[in-house]
Write the structure tokens for this entry.
Amino acid sequence: MKKSKILLFFLFFTTFVLASQEKNPDTGSRDYRIKAGFSIGGTSPLPLPAEIRKIEGFNPLLNVMIGAEVRQNIHENWSLLCGLQFEMKGMETKAQVKNYNLAMVSGDDGEISGVFTGKVRTRVQNSYLTLPLLVVWQPGRQAEWGIKFGLYGSFLLDGAFSGSAYDGYLREGDPTGQRIDITTATYDFSNELQLWNWGAQLGAEWRIFPRFLTGIDFSWGINSIFKKDFDVITFKMYPIYGSLSFGYIF
Amino acid sequence: MSRFNSTKSAKARKREVVFPYFPSCLRAFALSCCCTLFLLPSCIQDELPNTEADILACTIPDMPKDALNEIVVENNAVKIWVKPDVRIGTLTPRFVLTEGATITPPSGMPDNFEETSEHFYTVTSQDGKWQKKYTVAVLSYILTQTEFHFEHYEKAIETANFQQFYELNGEEKQYVWSSGNRGFAIVNSSVAAENYPTSSYANGKTGRGVKLTTTSTGTAGNLVGMPIAAGNLFIGSFDVSKAMTATLEATQFGFQCKVGEPDSLKFWYKYRRGAVYKDKNGNELQKEDSPSMYSVLYEPVRKPDGTLERLNGTNVTTAGNILAIAQVNQADIVYSENLETEEYRQLSIPFVEKKAIDPEKLRNGSYFLTIVFSSSAKGDLFEGAVGSTLCIDEVQLIRK
């Protein structure tokens, strides 16, 4: 299942690149770019579930992004944009929660599970290989700016989702279960992360100098970052990030 | 690039028009950051009604003066410990509940505790979805026996396999012995009863005995900084809500007793050390594990609210209100190679008087007594060797 998905992705990608290589003088210019930037955002349930009572802290971390892309002009107002980029999506939050479902470990080696009320610190640090497939609208063939939108697919290269529950208490099983006060207990769901993530992307780019480009992009994850059968966190979590990047046009 | 090869004036004009866009791009970016940062917190939903259905506290204003020892509120029980030989009639218990929760019968309703010692109350959560049944009971165990054989045990709770021991006073089961098993169940509830740190042991000195084993708490235990659990058995009770925050205070030692003036603590034991001694952080130390075995007679301090304060893990051997203490001399312990084949050995530890014992208080049950065994002497600080095993049977309190 996973392999066929990967295959499909690369098939799509290569077809796209090959198709765009067919030279047609009427279809306008093509350019290649390399770019680098940074992103800021959150990996969060949407909307925030009622279990989350207060966000007490947010650290966007340093999420760098580097990549290459090719833009093929196909029409007076339209271009196609395809890229391949390495990007990081991470953040750290501190939140006050009430009745938050929690399991510290699952498996044969014991576990603590139940309903937690207190504070939760979450640190997400995922790095992805991302392939955006975008359509660019520009006011005219010679325009310096454009608006782009489309989809992206991301493959998780390295993922970390961990944190701790602290200054609170756990009810074993359900809200009527035994109350156990917790000073601090750590958890790690890194192994429960979904390998593939896809979503929608919206952005704008602008050519500040003949060979220099800047752009902003927003990406919304459409599938949860966790595997389908992962039920410890009862709500789905989506990566929502914005990035600012600078590029060089060859 | 071709589009920049236009006439200079056009280019210049274009730049003039285009440049102001650049800050607007940044503005948009800043705006989006603000959205992520501030929009999400402002999306916090309304708080849902409470789901918990707890009795948080219980007071009994019409309790006869000095009759009350302690009110212990557990997850499904309220235990009203009173002095033995006190006649309890109608009581009007008042309950403090989780915010928004309701209780039936209502708080402040008089109830006759003379005829039936157990009364049932049901608490319903604010959201109406959860209910919890409580047993409210007036209890007055008094330790009168001086011999313990550990023949009686049962499965302690529904959700885990561990056992608890009890003594029989006629038909009545008295749960005077406690252990930290309930704490171990938080991190490792699924293991078999005999793999808990404290369990009944078929191969006792006479009949069944008790086996205490220093056990690894596994990954979950490590995550909460409690890598091991020593097997322990003590007269007293275990407050599981404190098991992970104030471990030493979770062990509440002693019950009121009428056992006369103790002379010595006598019992049969076998002890084998675990191989690798580690501290709380998992560092290997060049130390050898040893068991702890002691008994303490003390006069509990009366708290301002009139209830009695029991000794706990922080002060059980050091408190100022200890009257007499019997502690094993580590040099007297003989170590076993193979617990299954080796014979039990008997130890007799004399009580050392710390303070004058009042014969009248001894007679009327004002003093508390505890007996404590543990497979690792520093197990309460999560220090010891996994595998250290202490087998205990036929415990006797010898009177003067």
